[in-house]
Amino acid sequence: MTKNRLYIDIHVLQTVPPSCVNRDDTGSPKTAQYGGVTRARVSSQSWKHAMREMFRADYEESWSGDRTKAIVQKVAAKISEVNQLADAEKLATDALVNAGLKIKSAEKGTDALFFMSDAQAKGLAELVLSGEKDKKLFKEKLSSDPSVDMALFGRMVADDPSLNYDAAAQVAHSISTHAIHNEYDYFTAVDDCSPEDNAGAGHLGTNEFNAATLYRYATVNAVELQKTLGKDVSEVVKGFAESFIFSMPTGKQNSYANRTLPDMVYITVRCDQPVNMAGAFEKPVPACANGYMEKSEECFIKYAQETYKMFVSEPVCALGTDRTGKLEAIADVMPINDLLDKLAETVSASF
User: Fold this and answer.
1) DSSP conformation letters of 286-343
2) In the predicted model, what is the mean pLDDT of residues 164-177?
3) How far apart are CA 300 and CA 292, in angstroms?
4) Given this model, what pLDDT does residue 87 score?
């Protein structure tokens, strides 16, 4: 393996029942045109947010930063943990300005959302409390010690590009493997305290929804990730894969209870380039008596085999788990927990 390139591709097929996982500005489930037909779509931003929420709930504090305009309050809180000063917000503002950021006011913070880790906020607080005035040191603190989600998903600072982090991970928009048509749920709500002689509903409305077998894809540049974090990233890659596989955006979750698990997971380790396999579904999978999932997996496997034969080499390592057993044609198939452990071992051994 080469230490210059190491990509981990994660492919998931997942069936989602009637739901509105990710809606547009009109409240309708997001869709996309692909292969000449309408597909269900879940945006990458929506799924990345779900993954970051899983980081926050299930992993240690260093995994999660805050994307917020209220960065003055974040630094001020770190100052107050050390010394309860009345001017903590002013000191925090000074620290952030010294680091090169434009602060509108202590209340309004920055013009745009700013991604900051707890370690960075603590570092700025320590500098300003020590009476340090060297702006270079403040900028260095704001450039070091990123949280894991910052290293994975990146940080862009328009005011000062030197504070940017290149994202080590990319997440594709999930699309259905087949054509879909949105449907409407007409519903009524009963007023529990209405008079007995009132037979009408207290509220009427409609919800738009669809159901789909989704193809989901994400990739991680492990070399870039290790450069940013400066440590063994095998557990981070494992956590990224786990959160991508098991997370679910929460749109209309209470209305539809649509939390499902994948039907197929295929993870490859590559030393040439990432390979998105969405082309397997450019021709929409047709409906059949067995639904969409089984045929979708067959199309995926065939497309992967053709891709490895005609365009790129087979992956260095291919791991998978599925419900049908058909994935054995292109992967070492095993239970998901064993798969994630094997992935971490493979990444660790690659450096």
Assistant:
1) PP-TTTTHHHHHHHHHHHHHHHHHHTSPPPSEEEEEESSSGGGGTSEE--HHHHHHHH
2) 97
3) 12
4) 87
| Helix boundaries (H) for 63-181 | 71-82, 88-98, 118-129, 135-143, 148-153
Kindly state the average pLDDT of the residues 217-224: 97
Provide the 10 A C-beta neighbour count for residue 181. 9
Summarised one tens digit per residue, pLDDT across range 18-31 is 999 999 999 999 99
Conformational region of residue 27, where left means phi above 0, alpha means psi within -120 to 50, and beta covers everything else: left
Would you state the structure tokens that stand for residue 36, as one six-digit string? 């000449």
Contact 34, 282 (CB under 8 A): yes
Residues facing residue 66 across a β-bridge: 116
Packed helices 88-98 and 135-143: angle between N→C axes, nearest 10 degrees: 90
Spatial distance between the Cα atoms of 93 and 318, rounded to a whole number of angstroms: 49
Q: Which residues contact 295 (CB under 8 A, 6 or more apart)?
A: 285, 286, 288
Between 104-108, 151-155, 216-220, the lowest mean confidence (pLDDT) is in 104-108
Residue scoring higher pLDDT (214 or 82):
214
